[in-house]
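Q: Here's a chain of 168 amino acids. Please give me its 3D structure as tokens.
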Amino acid sequence: MSERVCVGAIAGAFGVRGEIRLKSFTAEPQDIANYTPLFTKDGTRNFTLTITRQINNGFSARLSGIATKEEADALRGTELYADRSQLPSLPDDEFYHADLVGLTVLDTGGSELGRVKAVQNHGAGDLLEVQTKGSSATVLLPFTKAAVPTVDLASGRIIADPPEGLFE
């Protein structure tokens, strides 16, 4: 498990006074402000974040050290990471997406199906994007208790009971 978890991304400038458009990836979107300081992926920069208002598809916010529209625009696409220690602990049946990426996926018989490449959510629930073993092809596995009965972070594996024909 990494020490930092991606909690949001900068979508560009908002206005002309250095505010940004912020997409939050936290369960309660406004809670992203509670996890500061936020870091860039490479850890070279960190910011204190203050949400100024809710806007379409996110928030407008101020970042420490960002005072102009040009500085805010230069950060477009930047992912923001929080220290894991700042985040709330999760119940046993919930996981941070970052912890699932890279896990080996096995079927209930112990045969390897592939590795989790990403976690997708298009509004109807989480899907594990599994890169199939020995191929660059991916399969979207529903992340439900029925299709994924066991997630073992300590062993780095997921036991899956995929719908029939999904991995053929």
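Q: Can you summarize the key feature?
A: The chain has two domains: 4-86, 97-160.
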